[in-house]
Amino acid sequence: MTIHAFTSFSFSYLNRARVLSAGLKRLHPDWVLWAVVTDLPPDGMQNDWTEDGYDRVLTAEELFGDQTEPWLFGHDIVEACTAVKGAAARRILGEPECDKLIYFDPDIAVFNPMDEVVDLLDAADIVLTPHQIAPEPRSAHQAIRDNEITSLSHGAYNLGFVAVANRSEGLRFAEWWDDRLRDWCHDRRDIGIFVDQKWCDLVPCFFENVKVHRDPGCNVASWNLSHRDLRFDDAGQIRVNGSALKFYHFTKLGPVGDTMTQRYARDNHEVYEVWSWYRNAVAAATDPAIPEGYWHYKTFDNGTPIPPAARRLYRERKDLRAAFTRPRTVADGFHDWLAAETDLLEA
Fold it and tell me: Across the strands, what pairs with 313?
C-alpha cells in the first residue's frame, strides 16, 4: 500500500511548504509527497524540490496545458492555488501505485503520525474535518460570529485537509471536485461560494462512505481554539483535549492570526509555544530570493499589476475570453483593451 500526499502553493508560501514536508518526511518517510505549484520562480532563483522535501512536482501548466494562461487570469492567488486541487487529486489518483491520497494546506504542520486517518480510509472513501466539533454557548456572541457564523459563510469543513481512497467513490468525488473547481473556485460569498470549501458542504449529500473526522487533535486552528485545550503530557507530547496533536493549521501567520489566537487561546500557554516554534521554523525556511507576496501571475508580462476587477471582467465575459486567449501577455491586446475601454488599470 502506497500513501501519497500533496499540497498546493505559490513560491511566496514555499517556506511554509518546507515546514510541512519536513514534518511529513520525519513521521512518514515512506509516503510520496507532491508539490503542486501554481507559480513560476522569481528570476535567478534556483531550488531543488528534493531538498525541499518533495518527491514529485506538478505545475498548473502540466494540469491545464494551453488553457493555463486564460484560466489562471480569472483567478487571484488564493483562488488559483485552491482551484488546482481537484485536477491534482485526479492526476495523482491516476498513479498506479497510489492507494490513498491526503491533501494538506501548506500552512499546516504535522506533529504526530497520521496513521488513524490512513486507517479510516480502509472503510471510508472520503475523510473530511469540520471547522468546529462543539457548539458555542448561547451567551458567547463573539465566538458564535467568529466561529459558527464564519463556518456558515466559508464552509462547514476545512479543506486545508481532505483524504481520499483510490476506489470508485473516491474517484467520483475527485472528478466532481475538479469539475466544480475549474469553473467555480472563487471567493463569491454573495452567491454562496468560498473557493473550494463551500462546495464540500455537499459531499455527504452526494457521496457514500464519507467520514467526518472529529478528532480534536486534527486541524487545530484559531477558529476552534475556544474548544481545543492544548497541554503537554508527562512525556512532553502536546495533547488536545486529551488526544495527540496530529496537525495544526497556522492560518493567517501575522497580525490577523495573532488577534484571533489571543482572543480564544487566552492563557493556554502551549498554544503560544506552538506558534513560536512555527514562526521560527518558517523564518528558517524562508528564501530571501523570493520577494514578499510574490506571484508570477499577479502582473501582466510588462509588470503592470492585474486588478481584481479585470480578472472578474475577463472570466465573466465570453466575448473577451474568445478575443484574448493570452490575456496576461500585453502583445495579445487585452491590456490595451482595458486601457482604452475601462478605467480599471488606473486604480
Answer: none
* pLDDT tens digits along 203-254: 999 999 999 999 999 999 988 999 999 999 988 899 999 999 999 999 877 7
Domain that holds residue 313: 299-346
Q: What is the pTM of this model?
A: 0.95
Beta bridge partners of 263: none
Q: What is the CATH number of the domain that holds 180?
A: 3.90.550.10
Rounded to the nearest angstrom, the gap between the alpha carbon of residue 219 and the centroid of all alpha carbons in its chain is: 12
**Distances from the Cα of 177 to the Cα of 84, 95, 211, 219, 316, angstroms:** 10, 18, 17, 21, 21
DSSP string covering 305-316, please? B--HHHHHHHHH
> Per DSSP, what are the bridge partners of residue 215?
none
One domain, residues 252 and 276: yes
Question: Contact, 216 vs 241, CB < 8 A?
Answer: yes
The residue among 135, 105, 125 whose CA lies nearest residue 247 is 105
- Measured CA to CA, the distance from residue 18 to residue 281 in angstroms comes to 9
